[in-house]
């Protein structure tokens, strides 16, 4: 009996700059593949590069309805997102076409949680602001920079054992961050959904906003959570509060955040994410020149970066592809 011809898959990886691919994918018997890798891809290059692709591997690039239309990518059967968030993929088109979409949750949870804690300490102790001032020669001019650490209430920073961390977004990152925070002696409040009664084990959103001295945002972006934290929330926070955002740009109203910091409504903030990325002074109020004297820690969407994360992503990518081809897909979004 003649064995059936193998099923061949043309795979295109659009953004290996973020996460190099594993040396070899685990394909089930009867499946072969060729892979074309691009270090970076501009939006205007997507259509040409995926025209003949059966499988696309991407990270953050915008997979719009235009490039996902059957006329643009007629052979496309699956998209594997090397990330947790899938907000850059047009899900409606994928659903209509039957394109399988899978992500890679939990792979970066430990790394992002560690970044949360690092950002908290940096903001609580005004490390970035102190660094900037001392580099500008302000220490000898002023005689001391001790007061740089004061909160709006005029008090020096509190230690971790006296903090209440409010976590908005109870996924893998939130749970890891909570574990580390509790190890440091913090009390942890897990927020319920804004505008809804809190379920068992959760604290109402408004209560978290009022009572937490550290607020961590680590939830996926969706239309429902845009500007989740804006002027009313900053007005309700304690003046000693520090905000840490490792979720997605747009969940915090950045203009309102800058205003709250400038008016000393809160003690400090740290953000790894921006509404427009790559971010710069021209497209983000967090990076405008007039924010340099605020207690604001900014990092370029690198909370996920570590050697362990890359290894986890590679393992998850192999599992996602092989399980899908075997008919038992994991980490399915669509």
From TrEMBL:
Residues 33-333 form the D-isomer specific 2-hydroxyacid dehydrogenase catalytic domain. Keywords: NAD, Oxidoreductase. It comes from the Eukaryota. SUPFAM superfamilies: Formate/glycerate dehydrogenase catalytic domain-like, NAD(P)-binding Rossmann-fold domains. Residues 119-303 form the D-isomer specific 2-hydroxyacid dehydrogenase NAD-binding domain. Coiled coil: none annotated. One of its GO terms (molecular function) is oxidoreductase activity, acting on the CH-OH group of donors, NAD or NADP as acceptor. Belongs to the D-isomer specific 2-hydroxyacid dehydrogenase family. PANTHER family: D-ISOMER SPECIFIC 2-HYDROXYACID DEHYDROGENASE CATALYTIC DOMAIN-CONTAINING PROTEIN-RELATED, D-ISOMER SPECIFIC 2-HYDROXYACID DEHYDROGENASE FAMILY PROTEIN (AFU_ORTHOLOGUE AFUA_1G13630). This is Glycerate dehydrogenase. It comes from Pseudomassariella vexata. The lineage of its organism: Eukaryota, Fungi, Dikarya, Ascomycota, Pezizomycotina.
